[in-house]
Design goal:
The protein has about 260 residues and is of the alpha/beta class. The chain has helices spanning about 5-10, 30-45, 55-70, 85-95, 120-135, 150-155, 165-180, 185-190, 205-215, 215-225, 230-240, 255-260; strands spanning about 25, 45-50, 70-75, 100-105, 145-150, 190-200, 250-255. Helices cover about 45% and strands about 15% of the residues. It has a seven-stranded parallel sheet with strand order 3-2-1-4-5-6-7, with helices on both faces. The longest helix is centred in the middle third of the chain and has 17 residues, at about 120-135. It is globular. About 45% of the residues are buried.
Length: about 260
């Protein structure tokens, strides 16, 4: 019978740190939510592959912080829209730490200037599926995959979002749907998938770009929701899902009570 990381913890198989002896890949983790998740997982004993696309010094700073706190991490530059990039992350986990037990699919994009027309779908759907499929053969029974998304994307079919964000939101929803289609196969291997969906997060690149394209967007959403989570607060909720005792396919909602009420 397969057991998740959370069930192992509940059964007392770890002493002290909940992820001792485990290895995690966190995509898009040189800054923001991904960086904070990487730090939190490392604090629980996981060895972490910190992924960046272009900013090596930023990723190295995350690694240095983890190591100074007594953790283990390595920074790996990888463009997830390429097979070479995906493979380099998987290889780094095995070569540096000898295992791969947790995959946090945090990287996303599509609002950046100068990207190709279909970049959002290429990154937010195709790259997510490719990353998962490349990691799964190396993940043992009991491993977990966490997909990080937003309410604006998760609820896009029932709750309208800002026009500036809709193409990205639909690409992220397509990515979530594609990952969920893999749940039966993952279950047969004893691997669970958890989706973490959050309201607009203060201080993220996406929120900043949306506010730039639609001035006042952050303040308007804050007024509607009553509270917006900070990067650190949301990252803590994502990290909790590494060991949470939930069924595969579970969606963890963070903030945005009005979205939940509209379901």
């Amino acid at each position: 019978m397969s057991r998740t990381l959370g069930q192992e913890f509940a059964m007392g198989e770890f002493e002290g740190k909940t992820l001792q002896g485990k290895t995690a890949i966190v995509t898009g983790s040189s800054r923001g939510i991904g960086a904070e998740v990487a730090k939190l997982l490392a604090a629980e004993g996981a060895a972490v592959v910190v992924n960046y696309r272009q900013k090596a010094p930023r990723a190295e700073k995350v690694v240095a912080g983890i190591e100074s706190a007594g953790g283990r991490a390595v920074a790996v530059g990888a463009d997830l829209t390429t097979q070479e990039g995906v493979q380099s992350l998987v290889s780094a986990a095995m070569e540096n730490f000898g295992s791969l037990d947790l995959l946090v699919l945090n990287a996303s994009g599509g609002m950046e200037a100068g990207v190709e027309e279909n970049y959002a779908l290429k990154l937010n759907r195709d790259a997510q599926v490719n990353m998962l499929n490349s990691a799964v053969p190396l993940m043992p029974e009991g491993s977990r995959v966490i997909f990080v998304t937003s309410h604006q994307a998760h609820f896009i079919d029932t709750v309208p979002t800002m026009p500036e964000y809709e193409p990205v939101a639909r690409s992220k929803r397509a990515g979530e749907d594609a990952l969920r289609e893999l749940v039966p196969n993952l279950s047969s291997l004893g691997i669970s998938l958890v989706v973490v969906s959050g309201d607009m997060i203060e201080g993220t690149v996406t929120a900043t770009l949306l506010d730039r394209a639609n001035p006042g967007a952050i303040e308007a959403r804050r007024s509607e929701a009553g509270k917006l989570y900070s990067v650190q607060e949301f990252a803590a909720e994502v990290a909790k899902m590494a060991t949470a005792e939930v069924e595969t396919g579970h969606t963890e909602y963070v903030g945005g009570a009005d979205y939940l009420a509209a379901q």
